[in-house]
Amino acid sequence: MRLVCLSISFEKNDLARRGKFALQGHDQTRLCNYFIDHGATEALCLSTCNRVETYLVFPKKFSGDCTAIYADYLQIDKNHFCECLDLYPDAKALEHLFALACGARSLVVGETEILGQLKQAYAVAVAENLTGKILNRTFQRAFSVAKQIRTGTDIGRYRVSVANTTVEAALDNLKKYDAPVITVWGTGTVGRAVLQALADNGYSKGIILTRNPAKFYAAPKGWRIEDSHNFKEKILSSDFLFTCTGAPHPVLHPSDLTGLNNPLYIYDIAVPRDTSPDLAGIEKIHLFDMDTLAKLISQNRSTRQSIKEEILPILADEAQKFWRCLNAAIHEKCLADWRVDAHELLETEMDSLCNEWPDMPEEIREKFHAMANKLMHRMLHWPSQSLQRAIRDGLPCADFFTDFDK
Known about the structure:
Layout: E1 2-9, H1 15-21, H2 25-37, E2 42-47, E3 51-58, H3 66-74, H4 78-82, E4 86-89, H5 90-101, H6 113-127, H7 133-152, H8 162-174, E5 182-185, H9 189-200, E6 206-210, E7 223-227, H10 231-236, E8 240-243, E9 264-268, E10 285-288, H11 290-298, H12 302-356, H13 362-392
Parallel strand pairs: 5-6, 5-8, 6-7, 8-9, 9-10
Antiparallel strand pairs: 1-3, 1-4, 2-3
């Protein structure tokens, strides 16, 4: 068994490049199925504003190149793609996942949104029958480790998110207004987090733009739900716009803001971005996107960074222990299957021999079977015990089992 994580994140890629790789829900499932069609036995994909993560399980006999498969799916040059990608194999994949789940690999160290996004991606993969015993156990363990880290270390004291950080970055400008007109465009997980962050800072009044007003949950007190198809009028009358739709392309262009009379602060925290880059050059528009916010975040991250450095060795140790347990469980299953195969082979040979001597007395036949089974048990006992000890000690035993990949 081989576990692989392919990661495209903010650590290597700017906003424009991340936007090219971002996947919607159905695209994530399609990518997983593509990998399964090309040799993977399990697959799970997560796409957020800061990363695209793909977790894959391959059989030991797999000899393909998962990076090439990914590049073929995206129809891009593999060499160029490798510059954007981080590949984590086996225990390193576990270590990366554990760090991701507890917020240690996030743009904002310690943020909590990523854990919910991982759980949602896992639920989708399970519903689509894309996961099996390996990824199921792996992600359940990741959620457990995340809880352990958040409750047992200081990272839990700094529960921040991209939404919180965005609102914090906007506070200096918000405080310039006695009663700022605020619009939040997008009603997904991030949009709701922005609404909560605004409320936590005393801003509980404004407009919520959504494609399906009738399907949206009850609006928080003070907020008015509007159809986003008529967004121009609402935005032109706003002082602040927080945009976080799930659109695959920009939804706001310079032509949409013709006639703007007042300064407009736009905080675009969508990936792919919701706003055209051309907006940045227009007078009265102050545009902040994920790259801009990343610079603001990096100016005040020393405390959370020190906590991250403290927990990384803990996560590495947890990953190594779980990797040994995962392989031990697989090897023990192979050992049990090996014993079953040996006994089935014995029975087949015994039946063949008995068929050649149809007149064999039943008493002799039973003694013959008993003797053969006793010899088989004695012959298997020493190698079985030796392999069992080796498995428990974490030694590589897979090559002993010819049917390991079944």
